[in-house]
Protein 1
Amino acid sequence: MPMRLSHRTTLRLATSFALVTAPAATTVAQSSTPSGAHWYRGNTHTHTIASDGNAPVLDVARWYKTHAYAFVVITDHELVTAVDPVNAQLAEAGKFLVLRGQEITQKVVDSAAQDGRRQAHVVAIGIGQPILPLGDNGNATGTAMEAVYARNLSAVKAAGGIAQVNHPNFRWSVREADLLNVPDSTLYEVWNGHPWVNNLGGVDEKGRVAPSAEALWDSLLSRGKVLLGVATDDAHEYQQAAFEDPLATHPGRAWIMVRADTLTAPALMSSIGRGEFYASTGVTLSDYRATRSKIELTIAPPSRPEDVRRYHTQFIGRGGKVLADVYGRAASYAIGGNEGYVRATITDSNGLQAWTQPMFVK
Ligand SMILES: [Zn+2]
Ligand SMILES: [Zn+2]
C-alpha cells in the first residue's frame, strides 16, 4: 500500500490487499482470503525479563499465543533474546511464531530538552545480533537526532532487519525534522500501547505544540516520506494486576494485521516491508481494496448482537486534510488525483481504531 500509484502497481494494489475474509469482529489470530493468502495478527514491540519486562520470554510468547495472536516480535533493549527454544515449544505451523528483534534504546544529549536528552528509540525486527546505540549507555553526544536515526536505521538494514521508529512523543522527544532523512518504508508507531507515550500529543505551559503521532505521520507523508504506520504494545508487565492498572504496560492493546502467504519469518518480513498490513487497536477490516481510482474497505461486524457500536472512516490526504467522512461498515473513496496520498483512519464509537497505509497519488 505505500507504493506510488502507477499503471505498474495498480494491479498489485488491487489484488494484494483484497478480499480479507474474517469470520467476525472478534479478533482472530489468522484468517484466510480467497486468493489463498492469510491475515496474521502480530505485535512488533514487546519486552521480557531479559531486559525490563517482568516475565520470561516463554511466558510472554505464551500470552500472545493464547490471546489470538499469530506472531510476536521480542524486542528487548540492547539484546536479541533467543527465540528458537521458545519456538521449539510454542510454534505451530500456520498458527503461531515468535520472531527475533531488539529495541535500540538510543538517547541524544540535548541541553535544550526537558530531560537534558531526547529519546530516539528504534525497534529492529528480524536481526540476529544486537545493534548497540551510540554513546555511553546509549547517550549520544555532539550529534543530532537526525544523524542517530540515520546511523541506527542503516545498521538495521545492513543486518537484514526492518526498522521501526518508536513512540515519537515519549518524553516529548521527536520532531518532524528528526525524521526527514529516514528511508522509505520505515515503520512508524502511529500508536504505541505504553500508557506514558503521549500518542495524542499536547501543548506545554509555554504553548509549545507537539502534534499527535498520527499528525506527525501526516506531516512526514506530506513531505513525501513513505512511512508505514504500525500499532504496537511495547508491553513490559504480564501479571494479572497489570491488566487492572491503567498505568501498567500490559500486552494486548495494539497490533498489526499482516497479509502473507505463509506464517514464516521471511514471508512476514516481506509483507511488512512492502506495507501489506494495517494497524489496529481493535477495529478489524474484513475487506480492503485499492485501485488507481478507488479505495474501498469493509469493517468486520461486532461479534455479539448486543454490540451496536458505530464506525467512522476518515480518508486523509496531504497536510492531514480529511478528504471524506464516511459512516457505517462500508467505506469507499474515489481518488481525484491531487490528494498527494490517501490513507484511512477508522474509529469506532468506543474509541477503537485502525489505520491503513498511505497510497501515494502521483
Ligand atoms: Zn522505547
Ligand atoms: Zn519498548
Protein 2
Amino acid sequence: LKNHSEIVKLEPYLPWHATHGNGEGLAIGIAEGLLRLKFTSPAPFPATGDFGIQLSSKSSPALPVTGHLTPTSIGGVFDLEVAEGSGRTHLRELLTGLRKKQHIEICRSEDVESSDRFTGFEQFSLLPETLPELDYVDINTATTFLGRAFSLPLLITGMTGGVARGEEINRRLAHAALTLNIPMGVGSQRIALEKPDLTRVFNVKKESDGLFLIGNLGCAQLHAADGIELCMRAIDMIHADALAIHVNVIQECIQVEGDRAFKGVLCKLEELCRKSPIPIVVKEVGAGMSPATALRLREAGVSALDVGGRGGTSWGYIEGLRSTLDETRHVAETFRNWGIPTAFSLRKIRSSLVDMPLIATGGIRNGLVAAKALALGANMVGIGLPLMRAALEDEEGPLRLLAIFKRELTITMLATGCQTLHDLSHRLCHSPYPLEAELHQTIQTGRNQGYE
Ligand SMILES: Cc1cc2nc3c(=O)[nH]c(=O)nc-3n(C[C@H](O)[C@H](O)[C@H](O)COP(=O)(O)O)c2cc1C
C-alpha cells in the first residue's frame, strides 16, 4: 500500500554530501524508506548503485544514510532507496517531524472541516425558559469526570503541536486548562517515544502542577509487538491521569505513510485496560462511533469513549491536502464528509450505554452547541481545531476562546432554566420550532432513554 510515487516535499530542502567520493546537493523529497536527492555538483557516474550520504538537518547532527541510487525522470534528481538499518530510523523521525509541521500549517491556513459542517446538533434545540427563577451567579457548570472534579465540562482535546512549536502550544493550552480547571489531552506521543529528547514538548505538568492530563497514542503503536510497553512509557513520560488511544481508519488509509493494520486491536486494548494503572479512553477522530463498537469497547474494559463524530475537522481530507498526487486528493475529497455526525453518534451510544463516560468531540464550535451535547448525554465536550488556532495566536488565545465557551454555556443554562448540567437533558427538543406535542414527546423520550 505504500506508494513511492507519492513523495512528500521536504521543506526546507536539506543539504547533503556524499560520504565516499564527491557529490553534494539537496534532499528535496521524502517517503517511507526513500529520499529524493537533487545533485548540485557532479552527479555520480554511473548514476546507479550503492551510495552513502551525510544529511544535514537543523534539528539533529548530520545523519548518515546509505542505500541504492536510481535516476528519476527529472535531470539531476535521483531516488535513494534506503536499506533497513542504514538510516531508515532517522528518515522515519524526519518524516514524522515534517508531517506534524505540515498538519499545523494546513490546520492554521486552510478550510479543513467537513464541507457542510453538519454535526447533527442542528436538528436539536433547547427549550427556552422565560422565567428561569435563577440568577446568573446561581448557574453551576461543575462536573466530575474519570474521578476528578472540574469547573466546566469542556476538554482540550489531544492535538500535536509539531516539533518546533509544540512546546509553546502545549504550554498555552495547559495554562488555559489549569486556569479554568478543565482536563487537557496531548497529541500523539509517538514522536517522543522515538526521540526521547522531545519529551519536553508533552511534559506540561512540570509547569502546570495539578493539571488533569490525558496522554495519547495511536492504535498502531498499541498494535506493535511491544505496544503495551509503549503505552506504559507514554503514561510515565507525562505522568498521565488517563491515556487516549486514537483510531482513525480513513486518515491512515489516505496518509502516504499511514499505518493500515487494524486486525487484533480490540484484543490489545483489552490487555491494555487490564494492565494500565490509569483509565483508558478510546478516541475516534471524525468518523463517529457506532453503539455496537462502543459496547465492544466497554466490554474490553475501556473507561471512557470519545465519540469523535463527523462535522468538524476532517483528517482524511487534511492528508489529501498534504499529498502531491491528484489521485490522493481525489480520494480525500470523497471522504471529506464521511462518518456519523457527532450528535447522532452521541445520542445512539448514550441510549444503549447509560453510564459510560462519554466525550463529544467533532465540530463543537460554541458553548450553545456544547450545551446541546451535554443535553444529549455527553459528560465532557472536546474542542480541537479552534483551540489550536487560538494557541497559534498568542499566549492567552486558548483562555480567551474557552472563556467565550463558558459564557455561552452559562447563558444557555440560565435561558433554559437549568441550574446544573444535569438539568439540560430535560430541555432537549427537536429543532426548529417543534409543535407542542412533539416537544412533549421528545422530552419524554429523553427521560426514557436515561438522559436524566
Ligand atoms: C492540529 C491538530 C492536531 C491533532 N493531533 C491529534 C493527535 O495527535 N492525536 C489525536 O488523537 N487527535 C489529534 N487531533 C484531533 C483532535 O483531537 C480532534 O479529535 C479533532 O480535531 C476533532 O475535533 P474538532 O472538530 O473540534 O477539531 C488533532 C487535531 C488538530 C486540529
Protein 3
Amino acid sequence: MRKRQIPGAVRVVVAGAGFGGLTAIDRLAGRSLDVTLVDRNSYSTFQPLLYQVATAGLTSADVAYPLWTAARKAGAHFRKGDVTGIDPGRRELRLADGATLGYDYLILATGVSAAFYGVPGAAEHSFSLYTRRDATVLRDRVMAALEQRSVHSDDQRLDITIVGGGATGVELAGTLAELRNIALPAAFPEIDRTRMQVALIEQGPALLGPFTPKLRDYARAELLARGVDVRLDTAIKEVQDGQVLLADGDVLPSDITAWAAGVCAPAWVAGLGLTTGPGGRLVTGPDLRVTGQDAIFAVGDIAVIDGQPLPQLAAPAIQAGRHAADQILHLLAGQQTTPMRYRDKGIMATIGHRSAVVELPSRIRVRGTMAWLAWLALHLVTLLGNRNRISALVNLSWRYLTWSRGGGVIVGDDPPG
Ligand SMILES: Cc1cc2nc3c(=O)[nH]c(=O)nc-3n(C[C@H](O)[C@H](O)[C@H](O)COP(=O)(O)OP(=O)(O)OC[C@H]3O[C@@H](n4cnc5c(N)ncnc54)[C@H](O)[C@@H]3O)c2cc1C
C-alpha cells in the first residue's frame, strides 16, 4: 500500500534500509512529511545472523523483512531502486533505472561492502558475507561440497579457510567447526569428519580486536577446543582457486575461502561527488551532514564523523539514523542542528553453542553460556518482524537441540555452474 502524497510537503528521501535508514523513517513518522525510503532490495537484511544462514541453521527468509511493510508502518513510500548518483544542486537522487527522486533533505544510509585490500585473487576466489545472497551462496557451496563427498567418500578432504578474525570470522569458524563435529556424523555418516578442516586466519595478534584480552583469549581457546586451526599474525598473500597463499610462505589447501577481513565503501560512492574519507566513507560533521552539504546527511557504516569515528555496528547506525531525522526536524522548525553524542551500548560476539563474549561499557564482562543466552535473546528481540522472530527461534532451537541426530541442517540448493 502506498502512502498518499501530501501536496507541498517537505520531501525527505532515505536511501538504504538497514539499521540506520529504518530508524530514520520511524523517527520521521507522523510528521506531515513526504518520506520516501529507497533500497536496491525489497527487503531489509539482518546482517548479524547471516552466518547462521551461511551455515545452514536459518533460512534466508528468517533474516529478511519486507520494506513495503516497514515503509507503511512509518507512513512512508517505498521505492525499490539502486542509487547511482546525486545532484546536490537540483536536489535529486539518481537511480540505476534512469529515474530521479527529488528531495529537500536526503539521508544516505547505504552501508558498506567487503574490502579485499588489493589481495590478488581475493575478490575472485573467496566468498564474502555481507548480503543475504552472499549467505545462501556460501551455504550452497558448503552443503554441495558435503553432499559430493558423501557420495564419493574415498579420501577427498574439505578445507575451509576463513580470512579475518573479527566477530564475523569467529562466528563463522566456530559454527562450521560445530557443524563438522556435531552434525556431520549424523547428517553425512559417509564422510570421515577428520578430513574436514576449518582454518581461521587473522593478520593481527589477536581475535576479536575490540574486546579485552581475557575475552579474546577465551574466544581463541573456544575455537581451538572445537578444532579450528587458528593462525594469528598471519597475512594473506594471495587467494587462488583451491588454495590460499600466506605471507609467511605457507600454502593452505582451501576448497572454500570465506572473506571476513573488513569493509569499505562500495566503488559507486566515490562517484557521488561528496567528501570521502577513510575506506571511501562519506565524511560528515558532528550533526551528521556530509561535509560541505546543507541538506544531505550520512549515517551508519557508510559515514565517518570527522574527528569522532564510530564503530561499524548496529547501535551506532541506529543512533545516527535517529539523530539525522531529528536534525531535519530541527531545521524545519528553524532551529540549529546539534552534534551527535554516541552512547556506547557494549559489544558481543558468539563463538558457537553456549559460547559467547559480552563486554558492556560498565566494565561488565560475561562469557560462556550466560553470554550466549544474552546474545541469543538480543538478536531475537532486535530481529525485525514477529514471524522472523518466531521462525528464527524455532530454527535455532531445532539446530541446537537436534543437530547431533541429523536435524538442524537446512538443505541448500545446487550452486549454479
Ligand atoms: C556478517 C555480519 C555480521 C554482523 N554482526 C553484527 C553484530 O553481531 N552486531 C552488530 O552490532 N553489528 C553487526 N554487524 C554490523 C552491522 O550489521 C552494520 O554495522 C549495520 O548493518 C550498518 O547499518 P547501516 O544502516 O549503515 O547499513 P546496512 O545495514 O548495511 O544497510 C544498507 C542498506 O542499503 C542498501 N543499499 C546499498 N547500496 C545501495 C544502493 N546503491 N542503492 C540502494 N540501496 C542500497 C542495502 O540493500 C541495505 O539494505 C554485522 C555485519 C555483517 C556483515
